[in-house]
Amino acid sequence: MGRYVARRLLQMIPVFIGSTFIIFMMMYALPGDPIRALWGERAPDHAQMAAMREELGLNDHILKQYWDYLLGLLQGDFGTQIRSRREVTEVIGDALPATLRLTVMAFSIIVVVGIGLGLVAGLRAGRKTDTAILFVTLLLISLPVFVIGYLYQTYPGQQWGWITPVVQDSENWGDLLLPALALASLSLAYVARLTRSSIVENRRADYMRTAKAKGLTRTRAVRVHLLRNSLIPVVTFLGVNLGELMTGAIVTEGIFNIHGIGRLVYSALNEREGATVVGVVSFVIVVYLVVALIVDLLYAVLDPRIRYA
Amino acid sequence: MSIEMTKAETPGVPLLEVRDLHVEFRTREGAAKAVNGVSYSVDAGETLAVLGESGSGKSVTAQTIMGILDTPPGRVTGGQILYRGEDLLTLPEEARRRVRGDKIAMIFQDALSALNPVLTVGNQLGEMFRVHRGFSRKAAKAKAVELMDRVRIPAAKERVNDYPHQFSGGMRQRIMIAMALALEPDVIIADEPTTALDVTVQAQVMDLLAELQRDFHMGLILITHDLGVVADVADKIAVMYAGRIVENAPVHELYKRPAHPYTRGLLDSIPRLDHKGKELYAIKGLPPSLTAIPSGCAFNPRCAMAQDICRTDVPAQVDVTERDGSPLGGRSSACHFWKETIHG
Questions:
Q1: What pTM does this model have?
Q2: CB-based contacts of B312: which residues, under 8 Å, 6+ apart?
Q3: Which residue has the higher pLDDT, A27 or B23?
Q4: Which A residues 226-255 touch B at CB under 8 Å?
Q5: Which residues in chain A have their CB less than 8 angstroms from residue B114's CB?
Q6: Comparing C-alpha atoms, which of A303, A309, A304, A147 is closest to residue A235?
Q7: Residue A179, domain extent
Q8: Is A36 on the interface with B (CB under 8 A)?
Q9: What domains are there in chain B, each with its CATH number?
Q10: Tell me: the pLDDT tens digits for A182-221?
Q11: Which of A5, A61, B71, B142 shows a CA-CA span of 20 to 30 A to B97?
């Protein structure tokens, strides 16, 4: 177990270097110039531009730039945002709480509603409830998040006035409900379908017949025996999904005006802020890798047949 | 008279009796008649072996007794299952649930798939006490260790926290037996308990089961297709074919003098040392499809003795007697020509 974790942590190093390198190169390959962008529509001051380039090391060879960046990362230096001259770590720190709250809320919705719907559909497989749930999940899967986002914003938000359509205060959980629902929709549908098929497969298993023969109540047989076995594949999906939620909120954060990680990446991309983009993405990669490791370890708790070697 | 109250045996009433049971399955080809009027009974301390090929309805009958048949597609279309004289089929589900595992328990064929892979064996054994007796987690675990000792699993105290996949096949089946035995039920139904095991382990597990049955004075219904297993432990045998019982007999009588051509076919197809080098006997043809059981005697297309009457009239279960008409205790056959079969 300890050796497994150590090996997994070591494996993260090449993954991390490889992915930051790719992002770095892609940013370099993009048309546009972050220094020129500072002047916007105005005529730039060429002397000042040249000075800034020199100072930021933008005149160095691209590989040298990457090397310097990597050395900086090792010392916890994620680079500097060109426009504001602030540390990228600080910029991330500002954007992170909103994204974390949104992720936690969306993830809770996915787990509770997704597994709940899947369980109900699976236990009623082939009946009307099942068909209805399958239809709704199909609808959610078919609609892109920007459509769902605007639908939520328009109907419960503006037309019916149940809830604030735009997030004014990202520390207010009530404000975050609509964006969390929008963000959760797709994964919720996947989780529901995955849970359903897993339940359908397992409810006819021999150990369920044994559970019945033991004289267990149906509730206990489902809760103790069926659910535990059925959730193993669902947990894998949820783990990968948690990483995606943190990064995939670009559109949702845009629609609902949340100043989180997604917004940050989006605006940094527009402004060709290479350092910010690479910094944020590197951070997200670390989060993703750590979450994936935790999920793999959790797997063994759920399924004792899995051995780590 | 509630089931909990009647612990004492009532004379004249069998412990468990199946009466004229009919079970069907809905399939695309129409109703599959899996059980067509099965009757048998078992008393405390008695072992009834139910013998038959796959699809003969022996397991479906057992599942119906337990009340664990999947309905739908299964459906009980007639008959009674009397436990101490009370018909289980008419009991409400909650009352039936309380009988399961507590009064009548079942042992399944493949312990690896019948045990829950993600729970410890101690947890699964203890569950019986937690659900039926309201034991605490700790007390239930102590009981689990006790049970594992009882079925002679070495180092029970340490192994109680292991998972099913960490045990050998024989040990897993012992755990299944322990689970069925947990609440000291009156009847245990063992559905091919040794089929999935190595031959060397089969005898050990069977001996253990027979020993426990004697100690606890339980009724045992042993479902099998293995004639070898039956000979040592059973008191009486019911042979099933296409959802019917074709012959009833005390175990040694059946081996000596079968009174049904199907039983004789089964006995003849056992490989024997003194027949070495000769071709192995096999009953010709295949068991019928349950959606299209032949008219008359279901065995007639495969029977060498079949006459016209076998194709038209369903043979009734009749008492088998000696040539001179003197009774043979506990023997019956559903063959028009049982006399010719038994007396040659």
A1: 0.81
A2: B295, B296
A3: B23
A4: 228-229, 232
A5: 206-207, 209-210
A6: A303
A7: 94-259
A8: no
A9: 16-234 (3.40.50.300), 240-271+281-343 (no CATH)
A10: 899 999 999 999 999 999 999 989 999 999 999 999 999 9
A11: B142
The distance of Cα B127 from the centroid of its chain, to the nearest Å, equals: 25
Inter-chain residue contact A224 with B165, CB threshold 8 Å: no
Q: How far is A203 from chain B (nearest CA, A)?
A: 11
User: Which of A71-85, B23-37, B133-147 shows the lowest mean pLDDT across its residues?
Assistant: A71-85
Q: Which CATH number covers residue A253?
A: 1.10.3720.10
Domain count, chain A: 1
**Number of residues assigned to chain A:** 309
* B33 contact partners, CB below 8 Å, separation of at least 6: B22, B23, B24, B243, B290, B291, B293
Residue A194 lies in a domain: yes
The answer, for A223 touching chain B at a CB cutoff of 8 Å, is no
A211, A212, A303 member nearest B118 (Cβ): A303
Q: How far apart are CA B210 and CA B212, in angstroms?
A: 6
Q: Which of A124, A207, A217 to mutate to test the interface with B (most CBs of B within 10 A)?
A: A207
Chain A residues close to B97, C-beta within 8 Å: 215-217
**Is A217 within the bounds of a domain?**
yes
Please report whether residue A131 resides in a domain: yes
Instruction: Read off the pLDDT of residues B198-230 as tens digits, 9 standing for 90 and up.
Output: 888 888 888 899 999 999 999 999 998 888 778
Give all strands (DSSP E) within B28-145, no chain letters: 30-42, 47-51, 74-83, 86-87, 104-107
| Contact call for B127 and A216, based on CB within 8 A | yes
Res A216: pLDDT: 94
Task: Say if A214 is an interface residue toward chain B (CB within 8 Å).
Answer: yes
| ipTM of the complex, rounded to two decimals | 0.87
Please give the structure tokens belonging to residue B1.
């008279």
Is-contact B197 B111, C-beta < 8 A? no
Whether the per-residue pLDDT at B5 is higher than 50: the answer is no
Residue whose entry in the numeric block shows the structure tokens 């008191």: B235
Chain B residue with the nearest C-alpha to that of A206: B114
Is residue A88 domain-resident?
Answer: no
Cα–chain-centroid distance for residue B50? Answer: 5
Per-residue pLDDT of B263-293, as tens digits, reads: 988 888 888 777 777 788 888 888 888 888 8
